[in-house]
Amino acid sequence: MGEFFIPITQEAPTLFGCNVVCIGSSTENGIESSIVSCYQHRSDYQIIFVNKGSGRIMIGDRYFPIESGNLILFRPHQYQRYDFFRSSELDLRWIYLESIPENFLDGILNIPDATLFSIKKSEIICNDFDIALAIAHEKSKHTSLLLSLYAGILLTHIADFTILPIKPGEKFTPSTEFKIKMIASEIEKDFAMNVHIKEYASRIPMNTGYFIETFRQIIGETPLSYRISLRISRAKELLSSSNISVRNVALSVGYVDALYFSKIFKATVGMSPLAYRKSLSRTVRL
Fold first, then answer.
1. What is the 3-state secondary structure of the chain?
2. Are 266 and 277 in contact (CB under 8 A)?
3. CA 29, CA 76: separation in Å to the nearest integer?
4. Rounded to an integer, what distance in angstroms lies between the CA atom of residue 155 and that of residue 100?
5. pLDDT, tens digit, for every residue of 97-106?
6. What are the domain boundaries of the chain?
7. Model-level pTM?
8. Which residues in the chain land under pLDDT 70?
9. Which pLDDT score, from 0 to 100, does residue 56 have?
10. Fewest CB within 10 A of the end CB: N or C in the chain?
């Protein structure tokens, strides 16, 4: 982890009116469920770019997911409450600015309550941060001037490449919804395979617990419940359209243990697989 503080002095020249208070980066590989949290108020502007990783941020009175390629903008004295999960590689870049000229983020700063954004060309924003961090390392007499220059370039690129913000009242970014729905499609395709839910979460990537909750809110049930629903639906089709044994039906939908399958089936349908098959045959005779 590295953080570089750049002191601002009255003699330090700045370009574009961008006074850089601090710039830094953080890269970590941690343990599942470990969280990096922040609760603070600051008197300057803070921009955090999420190059890699996932987390959540509180906007208003609710949490929103943070994902790779997101940018967080905090205004002076705005309450900050966010968490980053260490379950996957975490790579953050941030900069604190004493002031931001209105013309740089015009249309962004003017959006009330807008805090979380998506970036179309994240590699460009990442490159801007890398150059600014390299300048900060040098700590020469021109550091403040050069940092002011690159802060202006960074803000220009942010304004150019920002996608619609996530605002209170909206649950998820279009990107998050798309990724969750893609995972749902993968579960539909692989429902008979015993893929661990943690594996699906890592494909986004997202903390497993937060992935389960996000999936539930978007799809309507947890990933495990969704897979069980798919398995039981297929089992009902096999029981009604073939004479294969309950054991083979269980194997076909992903259950090695036929007794466990029967237990799940009964809990879902309200009767055992055999009783379900018999109920269908009675219906046909009637």
1. CEEEECCCCCCCCCCCCCCEEEEEEEEECCCCCCEEEEEEECCCEEEEEEEECEEEEEECCEEEEECCCEEEEECCCCEEEEEEECCCCEEEEEEEECCCCCCCCCCCCCCCCCCEEEECCHHHHHHHHHHHHHHHHHCCCCHHHHHHHHHHHHHHHHHHHECCCECCCCCCCHHHHHHHHHHHHHHHHCCCCCCCHHHHHHCCCCCHHHHHHHHHHHHCCCHHHHHHHHHHHHHHHHHHHCCCCHHHHHHHCCCCCHHHHHHHHHHHHCCCHHHHHHHHHHHHHC
2. no
3. 31
4. 9
5. 887 765 555 5
6. 2-161, 173-286
7. 0.56
8. 1-18, 28-40, 60-61, 86-88, 101-114, 163-174, 282-286
9. 80
10. C
Q: What is the CATH number of domain 173-286?
A: 1.10.10.60
Residue with tokens 């309200």: 270
Angle between helices 122-138 and 143-161 (to 10 degrees): 170
**Fold for the domain defined by 2-161:** Jelly Rolls (2.60.120)
The torsion angles phi and psi of 106, rounded to 5 degrees, stand at -60, 130
